[in-house]
Structure to design on (383 residues):
C-alpha cells in the first residue's frame, strides 16, 4: 500500500509542489478540505491588506501586491491608527500617502511607541509641525531608524562638524537620507580629510556638506580618484568651482558625460570649447540634455547667436528659458521695434543681470507703464 502511494504523485494546479497521490485513502475529502481552508485563509488575509493599500493609501494594484509580506494585517485598526497619528500631527492626506507608499511597513508600527518619540525629538529642537511634515514626506526613512542609536548621534555629529543651526541639519537630511539614517560619520570622515589635505577651505567644504551632502557619500577610493581628476583639470582648490566640478564628476557616469559632450558638439562646440566652458561653469554638465538643446536652440535659431559665443558664456545655458530668456528677449525686441534702444546689447547685460537691475536698465528709464505690463505678460505666457 505504502509503496503504491509513493510511486503515484499528484501535481497541484498553480504550484510546483508534487504531492503523493492519496486516491487510495478514504480520508482524501477531509485532507482536501483542510488544504482549501488553509489556502483560502491565507489569500483572504493578503486580500485585505492589498485592498486596504489600494483603497485607503492610494496604491496601484501592482504596487500593493509588491509590498513585502511582513506588511500584513487582518483588520484596519492598526493601519488606521498610524494614519490617524500622522493626521493628528498635521500631515496632509497627500503627505501621508506619500510616506506610506515609500514605507508601507509603517502601517504595522505602534505609532505611540515607535513614531511619537522621533517626532518629539524634532519638535524639541525647534522644527515646526508643518516643516517636519514637509521634510518627512520628502524623505521618511529616518522613521525606520533607532532614535537613540542612530538619529540622535548622527544629528549631534553633523551639527558639531558643520557648526550649523538645527534646522540646517534637517535641510541636509532632506537632500540625503544618509545624514541621519546611515552611519554618515564613517562614510564622510575620510573624504572630508582628502579635501582638507588638498587645500580646500573648510568653509567651502562645510557649505557643500550642508547643501549637497550626497557628494560626500561616495566610496573613499572613487572620491580620492575624482579629486585628483579635478586637480588635473586645473581647478583651484581655493575657489568654490573646485567643489562644483567635483560634484559634477562624481554624479555623472562616463556614458552620461559622453552623451552631453555629443549634444554640445552637435551644436558646433569643439572639444577645446567644451573643456574651457566646463572650467568656467562646471555645473554645465549637470544640466539635462533637454535643457542644453532647448537653450542652444533659442540662442542659435531664435537669437542668431554663434555657438562659440555661448561656449564663451556657458552660464547662459543654466538660465531659465521661460522665466528669463524668452521674456527678456521679447521685451528687447519690442524696444528695438520702437527705436527706443540700440541693437548692441551684450548677452551678459541682457540675461545675467538680476531682476532689479534688468528693470532699471530696460523698463524704468522709459516711464511707460505698458513696458512693465508687456514684460509681465511675457513672463506669464512663457510659464
Amino acid at each position: 500500500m505504502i509503496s503504491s502511494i509513493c510511486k503515484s504523485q499528484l501535481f497541484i494546479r498553480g504550484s510546483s509542489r508534487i504531492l503523493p497521490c492519496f486516491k487510495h485513502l478514504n480520508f482524501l475529502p477531509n485532507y482536501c478540505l483542510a488544504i482549501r481552508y488553509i489556502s483560502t485563509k491565507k489569500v483572504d488575509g493578503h486580500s485585505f491588506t492589498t485592498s486596504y493599500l489600494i483603497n485607503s493609501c492610494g496604491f496601484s494594484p501592482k504596487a500593493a501586491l509588491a509590498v513585502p509580506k511582513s506588511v500584513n494585517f487582518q483588520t484596519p485598526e492598526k493601519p488606521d491608527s498610524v494614519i490617524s497619528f500622522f493626521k493628528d500631527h498635521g500631515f496632509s492626506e497627500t503627505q501621508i500617502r506619500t510616506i506610506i507608499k515609500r514605507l508601507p511597513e509603517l502601517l504595522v508600527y505602534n505609532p505611540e511607541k515607535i513614531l511619537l518619540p522621533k517626532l518629539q525629538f524634532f519638535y524639541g529642537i525647534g522644527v515646526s509641525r508643518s516643516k517636519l511634515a514637509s521634510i518627512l514626506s520628502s524623505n521618511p526613512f529616518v522613521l525606520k531608524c533607532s532614535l537613540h542609536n542612530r538619529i540622535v548621534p548622527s544629528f549631534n555629529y553633523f551639527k558639531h562638524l558643520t557648526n550649523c543651526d538645527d534646522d540646517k541639519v534637517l535641510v541636509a537630511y532632506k537632500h540625503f537620507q544618509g545624514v541621519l539614517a546611515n552611519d554618515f560619520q564613517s562614510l564622510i570622515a575620510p573624504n572630508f580629510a582628502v579635501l582638507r589635505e588638498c587645500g580646500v577651505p573648510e568653509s567651502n567644504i562645510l557649505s557643500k556638506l550642508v547643501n549637497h551632502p550626497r557628494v560626500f557619500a561616495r566610496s573613499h577610493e572613487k572620491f580620492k580618484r575624482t579629486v585628483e581628476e579635478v586637480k588635473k583639470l586645473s581647478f583651484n582648490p581655493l575657489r568654490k568651482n573646485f567643489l562644483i566640478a567635483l560634484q559634477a564628476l562624481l554624479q555623472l557616469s562616463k556614458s552620461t558625460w559622453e552623451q552631453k559632450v555629443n549634444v554640445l558638439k552637435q551644436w558646433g562646440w569643439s572639444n577645446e570649447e567644451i573643456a574651457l566652458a566646463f572650467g568656467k561653469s562646471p555645473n554645465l554638465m549637470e544640466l539635462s540634455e533637454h535643457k542644453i538643446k532647448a537653450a542652444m536652440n533659442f540662442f542659435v535659431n531664435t537669437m542668431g547667436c554663434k555657438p562659440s559665443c555661448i561656449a564663451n558664456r556657458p552660464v547662459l545655458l543654466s538660465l531659465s528659458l521661460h522665466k528669463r530668456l524668452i521674456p527678456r528677449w521679447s521685451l528687447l525686441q519690442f524696444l528695438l521695434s520702437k527705436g527706443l534702444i540700440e541693437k548692441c546689447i551684450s548677452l551678459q547685460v541682457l540675461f545675467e543681470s538680476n531682476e532689479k537691475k534688468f528693470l532699471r536698465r530696460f523698463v524704468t528709464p522709459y516711464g511707460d507703464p505698458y513696458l512693465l505690463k508687456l514684460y509681465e505678460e511675457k513672463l506669464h505666457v512663457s510659464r
In short: The chain is about 65% helix and 0% strand.
